[in-house]
Specification:
- The protein is mainly alpha-helical.
- The chain is built from 15 helices and no strands.
- Helix 1 packs across helix 11, helix 9 crosses helix 14 and helix 12 packs antiparallel against helix 13.
- The longest helix is centred in the middle third of the chain and has 27 residues.
- The protein is globular and about 45 Å long.
C-alpha cells in the first residue's frame, strides 16, 4: 500500500491531467455528481492538512517571521496583479476573467509543500507560508477579489469570508485537534494523506470538467494558455522576489513554488458557491489544478539540480 501511495504522490500531475482528459472525453461519467459536492471534498483535503500540522510549524512562523511575511506579501500581490494583467491583455469574458482572478486571490496550495520537498527547497518556510497564507485568506481573498473583479461582478465579501472559514479554516483546525488528541492514529494515517489528497483533487477536476466540457472544447485553449502563463509568471516572479530580498537559493525556491502554486480547488469552490450566474468561472481553477502540478514537477527538477550544484 505504501508503494502505491508513493506512486500516486510522485505522479500526481499526470493523474490529475488524465482525470481531466477522461472527464473531457466522457463527461457523462462525472456529470451526475453535483458541483456543490466540491466543497466537502475540499474540506476533507484541508482536514488532512490539519492532521499534518504540529506546534513546530507554528514555531517556525514565530522564529522566522520576516521570511514568511515577505513570502506571503509576494503571494497576495504578485498573483492577483498577474491575473488582472492577463485578463486585460487577453480581453477575457467576464466569467473566465472572474475565474482567473479568483485563482490569483487564493492562498498557496498544499501541493506546494510536496513540490518544495522534491525541489530541495526550504520546506519549513514553505509549510509556514502555506499555513499563514491560508489563515489570511478569509480576509484577503474576498477583499482582493472585490478590488480586482468588483468592477464587473457583485462580490459578497462577507459570504466569501464565511465560506473560506467553513471549507478551509474549520477543517484544518479540526484536523489539528485530532492530531493532538489522537497522535498514534494520526501517525498511521499521515503517510497516506498525500496520495489521498491527490486522488481527491483529481476527482474535483473531473467533476468541474464534466460540467463544462462543451465550453472547454469550444475555445478552451485560450484559457489554458492564460492559466499556464499565470502560473509560470508567478513562479518566476516569486523566485525573483526572493532573490531581490537577498534570500538563499533554497528559500527563493520555496517562495517561488508557494507563490506560483495556488489553492485552485478553493477558487473553483468559491466560483461555484458565490458566482452561479458565471458558470465558466470554475474552469480556470480546474485547469490550474492540472497545470500547476505538471509545472511544479518540472521546476522541482530544475531547482533541485541547482541547489545540489550550489
Amino acid at each position: 500500500m505504501k508503494k502505491i501511495c508513493d506512486f500516486i504522490s510522485r505522479w500526481m500531475g499526470v493523474i490529475v491531467l488524465l482525470a481531466g482528459l477522461f472527464s473531457l472525453a466522457f463527461p457523462a461519467v462525472f456529470a451526475p455528481v453535483e458541483m456543490r459536492s466540491i466543497n466537502p471534498m475540499l474540506g476533507v483535503i484541508m482536514f488532512g492538512m490539519g492532521l499534518t500540522l504540529n506546534p513546530a510549524d507554528f514555531r517556525v512562523v514565530l522564529s522566522r517571521p520576516k521570511d514568511i511575511l515577505a513570502g506571503c506579501a509576494l503571494q497576495f500581490t504578485i498573483m492577483p496583479l498577474i491575473a488582472w494583467g492577463l485578463v486585460k491583455l487577453f480581453a477575457l469574458p467576464a466569467d473566465l476573467a472572474l475565474g482567473v482572478i479568483l485563482v490569483g486571490c487564493c492562498p498557496g496550495g498544499t501541493a506546494s509543500n510536496v513540490i518544495t520537498y522534491l525541489a530541495k527547497g526550504d520546506l519549513a518556510l514553505s509549510v509556514g507560508m502555506t499555513a499563514v497564507s491560508t489563515l489570511l485568506a478569509p480576509l484577503l481573498t474576498p477583499l482582493l477579489t472585490l478590488l480586482f473583479a468588483g468592477t464587473f461582478v457583485d462580490v459578497d465579501t462577507t459570504a466569501m469570508l464565511l465560506s473560506i472559514v467553513y471549507v478551509v479554516i474549520a477543517p484544518i483546525l479540526g484536523g489539528f485537534l485530532v492530531q493532538r488528541l489522537l497522535p498514534q492514529l494520526t501517525r498511521r494515517v499521515v503517510p497516506y494523506l498525500p496520495a489521498f489528497s491527490s486522488l481527491m483533487i483529481a476527482v474535483v477536476v473531473a467533476i468541474i470538467v464534466s460540467h463544462t466540457s462543451e465550453k472547454l472544447l469550444n475555445g478552451g485553449w485560450l484559457i489554458v494558455l492564460v492559466v499556464a502563463l499565470h502560473n509560470i509568471f508567478g513562479l518566476l516572479a516569486g523566485f525573483l522576489g526572493g532573490t531581490l530580498l537577498g534570500l538563499s537559493l533554497p528559500k527563493s525556491a520555496a517562495i517561488s513554488i508557494e507563490v506560483g502554486m495556488q489553492n485552485s480547488g478553493l477558487a473553483s469552490s468559491l466560483a461555484t458557491l458565490h458566482f452561479a450566474t458565471f458558470p465558466l468561472a470554475a474552469i480556470p481553477g480546474a485547469i490550474f489544478s492540472v497545470w500547476h502540478n505538471i509545472s511544479g514537477a518540472i521546476v522541482a527538477r530544475i531547482y533541485s539540480s541547482r541547489i545540489n550544484a550550489a
